[in-house]
Each structure stands twice: as structure tokens, then as C-alpha cells.
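User: quick one, fold this
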Amino acid sequence: MIYRCGRAGAPQRLWGTLARTVPRKLALGFASTDDLMAAAGCARRTITVWMELGLLPVPTKVSLGSPGGVFNRFPAWAIERARFIAEKRAGGYTYDEVRAMLDEQEARDRGDAPARSRTTGGAKSGPGGPRRR
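Assistant:
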């Protein structure tokens, strides 16, 4: 039973409230929306927007039955990705710039060669950058 103080300071019973919460048991290698929110320091709606924009993977819905409810199950690497997105957004980067950074990071992880800008016109690059004629 949960008690709270009323206006006069006398305790009142709160009927109909659930005094305990059922802890969710996730398999190792997975994360919940709450885990992503804690890592990125943002609200649930922000995580939803990042999923809609394709910055975060679409989670798997998991049901624990009536007391546990339905929740999202993300891969564990989504925690680091959410943290990365939050840091870049706080740094002033746009969603398109963050998406480009994530694409470049994924290409490096796959072992693809990153696209580099080419200098044209016979310019030679040295310690100070490309040399102009």
C-alpha cells in the first residue's frame, strides 16, 4: 500500500496504484528504449523520431504478458549509436550530416574504402594541403 501526505499533513491511502513494478528481463545483446534514452539523455519521442528518420534501427516488439506489457528490443549496438547521434546533434550538426557520418562509419566497419575528394589540375598535396599554381 502506498501512502502520501495530504494537505493537512495526514497520510492518505492511494487506492488503485501498483506499488511494485515488474522488472523486464532482456537477453544480453539487446537494449530497451529506456536504455537508449538513458545513454543519449533524451526523451522517448526523440528516440521515436530517430527511428522514423532511419538513424536508429527498427526494434523488435516483445510482450511479457499482462503485467509486463509490450516493449521494444533494440540490438545492443544501438546504445552507442544513440549516444553518437545525441553528441552530434548537441554539437550543432543537422540530421543529414549525422546520417552521412553514420554511413561513413558503417562503410569503415564493413571495410569499404571511404570516398575521398580528388584534386584536379595536377595539384600536389603537401603538408599545407593542395598547392595551387
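User: anything notable?
Assistant: The first strand starts at residue 2 and ends at 5.
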